[in-house]
Amino acid sequence: RSVVKQWYQRRVRGSSVDKIKEKNLNGHASVAEDEVNAKYMRCLEEPYKYHTQVPGKAIRDQTIEAMNLWLGVEKSVLQKIKELVTMLHEASLLIDDIQDNSKMRRGQPAAYLIYGISEVINIANLKYFEAGKIALELGSMTTAKNVDKREASKIFHDWMIKLHQGQGLDIHWRDHYICPTVEEYIDMVLKKTGGLMMLAFDLMYIFRNQSDTKLIYGTGRKFLETFSKFFQIRDDFCNLWDVKYAANKSYCEDLTEVNSPG
Predict the structure, then answer these.
(1) In angstroms, rounded to a whole number, what is the distance separating the alpha carbons of residues 156 and 143?
(2) If residue 243 lies in a helix (H) or strand (E), which one and from where to where?
(3) What is the C-alpha separation between 23 and 196, in angstroms, rounded?
(4) Distance from C-alpha of 56 to C-alpha of 235, rounded to nearest angstrom
(5) Where are the alpha helices (DSSP H) in 104-251?
(6) Interatomic CA distance for residues 64 and 79, integer angstroms
(7) Strands, E assignment, 64-120
(8) How many CA atoms lie within 13 A of 203 on its CB side?
(9) How much is the pLDDT for 258?
(10) Rounded to whole angstroms, how far apart are CA atoms 100 and 202?
(11) Distance CA 75, CA 154 (A)
(12) 104 strand-pairing partners
């Protein structure tokens, strides 16, 4: 409780808005209004900044860099894809902690325990839309030939649907005490855990600068599917047996999600 209280007090101090003398500029928003809006936007960002102040494992960034050895996406586009995926990942964790009633994330209290459920849901949704905006802008950044500028947005939305389907299955099984089959569990993992990696790979593929792409696409997708299954199964296992993992997240939290196949 003392930790939560400290963070709450910090939040209140950091979100206070000073009174500023307004100066009207030719009918446009005043300097004071701009400054106030900027301060309020910083307030909205606070749950996200709190959550991301402790970095994750950066597995997705490393995977994107590895896949780019095959695809040769130009650096500026690749950086935006990494930014998009990181934003979606971090925002999804904010929502995930609420849905799973998690108490800890990366060794500190979950963001919603500090800032409240409503604010955290709002900033997570905002980050989803900001990531979608990046996807829309990718087409105008690339010099790659024969790129349909609308394709990136379509890929983004297709995978966002699959990601939420996977998360929804996980929640449904937990809340209705349903133990999925191995096949159902794997399908959920490929959508929920593999979704962001697949999203990144599909975006990279349309902005590729390499030949022999059919072989690369098939091999890359197969690798990512296998890696996603390994990543999720290992994560569930570590939640049961790894002491350090339990200290950072909570012991046996994934067991309460009822997502172990029968």
Answers:
(1) 20
(2) helix 243-249
(3) 46
(4) 13
(5) 111-115, 117-138, 151-175, 182-192, 195-206, 213-241, 243-249
(6) 10
(7) 104-105, 108-109
(8) 35
(9) 43
(10) 29
(11) 22
(12) 109
Identify the sign of the CA torsion 141, 145, 150, 155: negative
Closest Cα to residue 83, out of 152, 161, 135? Answer: 135
Query: What is the chain's mean pLDDT, rounded?
Result: 83
With H, G, I as helix, E, B as strand and everything else as coil, classify residue 251.
Answer: coil
Place of tokens 């569990």: 185
Please, what is the Cα angle at 176 between 173 and 182, to 5 degrees? 30
Share of the chain above pLDDT 90, in %: 56
| Global pTM value | 0.79
Tell me how far apart the alpha carbons of residues 148 and 74 are, in angstroms, rounded to a whole number: 16
Residue 103 backbone dihedrals phi, psi, to 5 degrees: -95, -30
Residue type, 236: D
**Reported confidence tier of residue 124, pLDDT bands at 50, 70, 90:** very high
Tell me how far apart the alpha carbons of residues 254 and 140 are, in angstroms, rounded to a whole number: 41
Question: Tokens at residue 236, please?
Answer: 């569930």
Q: Which two tokens stand for residue 165?
A: 């389907």
Helix (DSSP H) and strand (DSSP E) numbers for the chain: 11, 2
Where residue 23 falls among pLDDT bands split at 50, 70, 90? very low
Provide the token pair at 178. 């349903």
User: Per the structure block, which two tokens stand in for 254?
Assistant: 């994934």
Q: Check residue 161 and give its pLDDT.
A: 98
Under the banding of pLDDT at 50, 70 and 90, the label for residue 150 is confident
